[in-house]
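Review form for a predicted model. The reviewer records the input and the model, then writes brief findings.
Reviewer: anonymous (R2)
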Amino acid sequence: MDWATIAERVGYASAGAACTAVGEALKANLREQDQNVDELRALGLAKVNRLQAAFWPAAIQDKDPKAAKVVLECIKQEARFQGTEAPTRVNMEAQRLADEILAVFDEGAGGPGEGT
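Model under review:
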């Protein structure tokens, strides 16, 4: 369906007006989604912080290994929520070597009787 048809059916003065209105509605929707994500992130972070605070004394003062594990998981989750978790590193040299090995196998994978 083209913009002129949309404008006519919905009651806009022109195809350009319909296009602009749809664009603005999409932008507003994205802003609302971003706001919802931020609210959910803040709520999740608050839960993680409360859990960490509850287990902190046992982990630090009592040196309880189970409590320490919970605290460490809370710290990891906090980094995920905040987006500060270190990115996964890829060894590019190893990837290049693997690609070369696969290429050699692909070259040698001709039909039956080839290469003999």
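Findings: The two ends are 60 Å apart (CA to CA).
Further findings: Helices lie at 3-10, 15-60, 65-82, 92-107.
Recommendation: see findings above.
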